């Protein structure tokens, strides 16, 4: 229909011009733009708006029907908050919430400290070409998939052949020893993203007005005083913004990290189970789609609330950086 | 003049020599730690299978061997199929993603578009809430019936709302209303304005979102994990994932095993598996240094808001 409108737009516009500003006039008049926006809008309907409403399955005892989604919905019976009751009375709910929050807090802290450290240090190194080389190297993990990173980790941690056991002359079955994994996961998760984050801070440091440093040098401030009193204060707004945005996403765990790097090993579930892996495992292996959908909705709703709160805070601090 | 400025910036930002050396070592070690695993995996893929069995993975092997790659060549079929799926999904997906993202962003960037506010909010809302894995899974499998089709690998990532907002800002900055107005007066259609005026002006932005899209598609295994069961549609990353949990897959699927060295025992599984990792990694590792500036520009391309 829209295509028709474009094809005949000149006459249509002429005809519609008399009764100006009518609905159809606007549609025709904006035809090309509507066409531009159409594919994206359709995608959003199918991959966002409908799935949002599909969350009602959390209140149902959902059964797949081959006749399509509406048939499935109609055939599954309402169970109210039963799925949520099961979820929150199980031990899992507390464990996965705790793990998700603690790991993400760890990532936020480590990422902030290490990225800023590297950014400041790299901005002060004397060989600028070497800095480029460092930055390029540090970006490599960021561009690789979690599957590949999982292989990298395996090369070190494989119980029979891994480098770590060979070097330490130990015989640790890494993929069955939960006590090491909080550190491994924190390390890998931070390591992968440092390159990207530190470049972000680095760009900000390079944008600081050099006259500040010149004036400080004239006044006899040494390097540390300059970093402490010029560089860091100039980075604080960005640091705040990044941390607040990260807090808004604190309920979302990186599925790839927690699923592929520990190879979904059952012995490690206590320390590797996060909301996303729990939802996935419920969806596929245990087949308990009710609990899984309840956990999924729980994650989305809390995540959305956190995002709204953090966005309100950002808007108060620095309205240009707010998401909306 | 220019030279003087350069010297200034060096003196403004630089440690004294001792501190410089110290921090070079620290940053250097971290930078090396980012390259080392790839080097390590390449070395393992080039190690003789018996040496791997006896000495484990070594940073410098006792016996070098190309057996892993040779075996990959004989294995052919499955690997090539996965490679083909990955390339196809990446190419088609990137074209779809960058086209739809740009056109949508362009539409909402123009002040002459009456419904731009509606469509902007329509897009922003999607960033506010996440429908969640289960709901997406149900819609894709039960409503769109995309399970075990290539579209299940392409469509879930076909549009990126965040990139739409970034590109909207970019279009507003780079493409001034006056240029478009003058083209309109000259009688150009909106489509022609978009393809012949707007796109050439927006190449850096479009390049950035295309590269991010291509990277996302090439690295994607999650959609395959959820939606792909057929062996014919397994992309490379997902194939690697399956082989990691079950290395025996390498010999199961390969009738070539018997041709290779005479017996099934002779399949260099470890080396072959790592050789596949290398093949999946090299396209990125070799190309990203050249595209790096576009990726980094993505950070600053448009402050999210106007």
Automatic annotation (TrEMBL), chain A:
PROSITE patterns: ABC_TM1 (PS50928). The keyword Kinase does not apply. It is found in: Cell membrane. Residues 97-310 form the ABC transmembrane type-1 domain. Keywords: Cell membrane, Membrane, Transmembrane, Transmembrane helix, Transport. This is Sugar ABC transporter substrate binding protein. Belongs to the binding-protein-dependent transport system permease family. The lineage of its organism: Bacteria, Bacillati, Bacillota, Bacilli, Lactobacillales. It is a multi-pass membrane protein. PANTHER family: BLL4140 PROTEIN. It holds the Pfam family BPD_transp_1.
From TrEMBL, chain B:
Coiled coil: none annotated. The chain crosses the membrane at residues 21-46, 83-106, 118-138, 150-171, 192-218, 271-291. It is found in: Cell membrane. GO terms for biological process: transmembrane transport. It is a multi-pass membrane protein. Residues 83-285 form the ABC transmembrane type-1 domain. Keywords: Cell membrane, Membrane, Transmembrane, Transmembrane helix, Transport. The keyword tRNA-binding does not apply. InterPro entries: MetI-like, MetI-like_sf. The keyword Ribosomal protein does not apply. It comes from the Bacteria. Pfam families: BPD_transp_1. Belongs to the binding-protein-dependent transport system permease family. This is Sugar ABC transporter permease. It comes from Companilactobacillus bobalius DSM 19674.
């Amino acid at each position: 229909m829209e295509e028709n409108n474009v094809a005949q737009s000149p006459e249509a516009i002429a005809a519609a011009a008399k009764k100006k500003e009518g609905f159809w006039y606007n549609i025709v008049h904006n035809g090309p733009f509507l066409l531009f926006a159409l594919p994206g809008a359709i995608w959003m309907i199918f991959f966002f708006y409908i799935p949002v409403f599909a969350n009602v399955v959390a209140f149902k005892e959902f059964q797949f029907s081959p006749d399509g989604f509406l048939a499935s919905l109609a055939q599954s019976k309402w169970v109210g908050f039963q799925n949520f009751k099961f979820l929150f009375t199980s031990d899992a709910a507390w464990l996965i919430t705790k793990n998700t929050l603690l790991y993400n807090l760890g990532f936020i802290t480590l990422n902030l400290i290490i990225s800023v450290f590297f950014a400041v240090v790299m901005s002060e190194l004397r060989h600028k070409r070497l800095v480029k080389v460092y930055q390029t190297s540090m970006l490599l993990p960021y561009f690789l998939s979690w599957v590949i990173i999982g292989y990298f980790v395996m090369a070190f941690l494989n119980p029979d052949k891994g480098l770590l056991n060979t070097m330490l002359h130990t015989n640790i079955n890494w993929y069955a020893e939960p006590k090491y994994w909080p550190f491994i996961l924190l390390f890998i998760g931070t390591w992968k993203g440092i390159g990207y984050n530190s470049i972000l801070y680095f760009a900000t440091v390079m944008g600081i007005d050099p006259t500040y440093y010149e004036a400080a040098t004239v006044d006899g401030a040494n390097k540390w005083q300059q970093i402490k009193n010029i560089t860091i204060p100039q980075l604080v707004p960005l640091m705040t913004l990044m941390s607040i945005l990260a807090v808004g996403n604190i309920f979302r765990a990186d599925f790839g990290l927690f699923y592929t790097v520990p190879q979904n090993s059952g012995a490690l579930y206590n320390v590797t189970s996060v909301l996303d892996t729990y939802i996935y495992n419920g969806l596929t292996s245990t087949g308990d789609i009710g609990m899984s959908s309840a956990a999924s909705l729980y994650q989305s709703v809390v995540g959305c609330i956190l995002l709204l709160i953090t966005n309100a805070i950002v808007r108060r601090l620095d309205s240009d950086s707010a998401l909306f | 003049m220019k030279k003087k400025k350069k010297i200034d910036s060096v003196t403004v930002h630089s440690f004294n020599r001792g501190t410089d050396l110290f921090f070079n070592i620290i940053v250097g070690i971290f930078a090396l730690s980012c390259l080392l695993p790839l080097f390590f995996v390449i070395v393992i893929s080039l190690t003789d299978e018996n040496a791997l069995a006896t000495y484990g993975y070594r940073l410098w092997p006792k016996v070098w061997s190309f057996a892993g790659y040779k075996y990959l060549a004989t294995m052919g079929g499955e690997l090539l199929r996965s490679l083909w799926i990955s390339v196809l999904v990446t190419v088609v997906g990137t074209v779809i993603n960058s086209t739809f993202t740009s056109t949508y962003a362009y539409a909402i960037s123009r002040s002459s578009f009456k419904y731009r506010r509606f469509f902007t909010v329509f897009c922003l809302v999607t960033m506010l809430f996440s429908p969640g894995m289960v709901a997406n899974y149900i819609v894709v499998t039960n409503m769109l019936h995309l399970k075990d089709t290539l579209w299940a690998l392409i469509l879930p990532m076909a549009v990126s709302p965040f990139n739409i907002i970034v590109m909207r800002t970019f279009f507003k900055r780079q493409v001034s209303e006056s240029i478009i107005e003058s083209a309109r007066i000259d009688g150009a259609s909106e489509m022609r304005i978009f393809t012949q005026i707007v796109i050439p002006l927006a190449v850096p932005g479009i390049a950035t979102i295309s590269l991010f899209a291509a990277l996302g598609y090439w690295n994607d295994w999650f959609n395959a994990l959820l939606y792909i069961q057929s062996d014919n549609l397994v992309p490379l990353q997902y194939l690697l994932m399956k082989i990691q949990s079950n290395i025996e897959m390498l010999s199961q699927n390969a009738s070539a095993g018997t041709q290779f060295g005479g017996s099934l025992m002779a399949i260099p599984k470890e080396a072959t598996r790592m050789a596949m990792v290398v093949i999946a990694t090299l396209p990125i590792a070799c190309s990203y240094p050249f595209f790096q500036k576009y990726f980094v520009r993505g950070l600053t391309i448009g402050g999210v808001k106007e």
